[in-house]
UniProtKB/TrEMBL annotation:
InterPro entries: DUF3243, Uncharacterised_YmfJ, YmfJ/YflH_sf. Gene3D superfamilies: Protein of unknown function DUF3243. This is DUF3243 domain-containing protein.
Length: 85
């Protein structure tokens, strides 16, 4: 099963990656840019696997670039307390 199949697993996966990036000294700006790039990749290459991902994909599709950056930043905030930390 892929981490994309389950919303909670996906959030934990993202939380783990976020904590790893922070531990390695990645700045908030770089994390924000990476989150945007991940969102862009997912929107173009990955079919949503559950309702939550479908909503995010729909929002991403109708958003302009500034709004997409805001969505990416909100996802970072959402997963800050997730993961195995």
């Amino acid at each position: 099963m892929s981490v994309l199949d389950n919303w909670d697993q996906w959030k934990n996966f993202l939380g783990d990656r976020l904590h790893q990036a922070e531990d390695e000294g990645m700045s908030e700006n770089v994390i924000s840019d990476v989150a945007y790039q991940v969102g862009e990749y997912l929107s173009q290459q990955v079919e949503p696997k559950n309702e939550q991902e479908r909503i995010l994909a729909d929002l991403w599709r109708v958003a302009d670039e500034q709004e997409q950056h805001a969505i990416a930043n909100m996802m970072v905030k959402l997963v800050q307390n997730n993961g195995t930390r």
